[in-house]
Amino acid sequence: MSAIKFIHAADLHLDSPFLGLKHMPANFFERVRESTFLSFSKIITCAINEKVDFILLSGDLYDEDERSLKAQLKLKKEFERLAEKDIQVFIIHGNHDHMGGKWLDLEWPENVHVFSSHKVEVKEYQKNQAPLAYIYGYSYPERAVHENITSQYIKIENPNVFHIGLLHGSTEGNKEHDVYCPFKVNDLLTKDFDYWALGHIHKRQMLHEAHPVIAYPGNIQGRHPKETGRKGCYLVEMEEGTVKSSFISTEEIRWEQIDVSINECQNLSELIQACERSIDTLKRENKAICLTISFVDSGELANELNSQDLIEDLLDVLNDQQNEQENFVWVVKIIDRTIKPRTTSQKLSTFYHDLENTIKNYDKFDEVIEPLKKNSIFRKHIDGFTKEEQNQLLKKAELLLHRELLQHQEQK
Fold this sequence. Notes:
The chain is of the alpha/beta class.
């Protein structure tokens, strides 16, 4: 069996609107608005440079079922780049770009293969006029598909080819996303495929690393503050009995979140300086970053930060120093998660008061860490805690309790 190389990507969400960012400078927002297209173009360039055999796109190529003409034309242009290099493209459509939507359909290049929305379909990939892979896939006929369709993925017995499944869905019981085409990992394992190219979950993850590999590449470009970090696709190389996958970062704009503690800040000027130090650290990465800052912990400033007008002013101050460089760190949101005992209910205020008294008069430190002393690793590396270290640990415990209570109040 010959070796095979391909790219697995999913959740392109081309032409995503990026709501709530139009207050950015025009040149920054234009780059954000075009980021999904620029990210996908990076994938195509990678495919050409790596001389892959094909690309797998596991659903949600478009952001909406009414696919914009702009998105289709840009997609077609990138597919034509692949056609010039004889690189094939295999596509399934998911809940966002299901086949029941309305759009002006274009004529796609001959290297583009779209899977049926009627049933699971098998397409053959040939190399040197011989079959090298059977690729199985299914496109959504409508937005919500709640059926477990894994029983329709039936392996065609041929030991001389690779077997690859494309599926847009999530594991049963997943709480982070709407559950479409639900499946159990064991459902996929029993099919005896070589690779499962999944889509729908925007967080990169491996559900199974050995044979077969079952992988979500995540989306190719973060689209809001919760989709942080590097985004991209998998470059996969397969030989008989082995699968090697490596992550390729493609995001044009990276979303990040940082915490800034108000513990040591005596006034707003010191808080701004603390934020600027964190921003300068990110700027050294020389990337375009949309940043969320969370103010955390307790201090004199906690009550002042309760004003939304003040938060807006801080946003303006932090972003006012941005220049017109290609890369930037733009603060899109500030979240106040500081601890404000004075503004809590009488019941919680009493608890805070009692907690502070307990911390001040705590005399059972040695008793609490007694179980740790029985651990050989602990004894080997730690002789004991000074009074100052004990106070620091107690302070951290107090802050953790405050933070847990604050989060509990927010959830209510």
